[in-house]
Amino acid sequence: MSDEEHHFDHKAESGASKTFPQQAGTVRKNAYLVIKNRPCKVVEVSTSKTGKHGHAKCHFVGIDIFTGKKLEDIVPSSHNCDVPEVTRTDFQLIDVSEDGFVSLLTDSGDTKDDLRLPTDEQLLSTIKDGFAEGKDLILTIMRAMGEEQICAVKDIGKN
After folding, report:
1. Per the record's keyword annotation, is Protein biosynthesis included, yes or no (predicted)?
2. Among the four 24, 25, 60, 150, which has the fewest Cβ within 10 Å?
C-alpha cells in the first residue's frame, strides 16, 4: 500500500471508478460492499475483538444486488474494502419485445434497448401485464460495476 492520497469521482459515468475504498470498520448494515467481486447490500455486520494476532475482524454478510445470492467476507477492521458505485435511474417504458428486451425512453429523448426483462416473476408479470393494459410504466434501473438490471416498476396511469 502506498501513502499517496487518492481522489475518486463519485459519479457513475464512463471513465469513473466502479468502486471506491472505505475502511471495513466503518461499513454498516444496509450499505453496499463488494464481496467476492460482486456488488452486495450488507444485511449483517459483526466485529470480533482484537486477538493475539492483531486486528479486530469484521464479518460481512451481503446479498448480491443482481442475483440475490448470499455472500460472506471477513476483513480486518483497519483495512479498506471496495464499495461499489450504485446508481438508480428511472426510465419510461416504451415497448416490450418478443425476445425479452425492453425499450426505454431516456431523459435526453433517446431510446435504451439493451436491457432484458427481470427474472423476478412478480416484477416480470407487473411489467408485462401493465404494458398489455396500456398503462404508463416507469422502470427503475439499478447500475453497479458495469451491470444494470430492472429493480422496480411504478405505474403512473393510463395512456
Report:
1. yes
2. 25
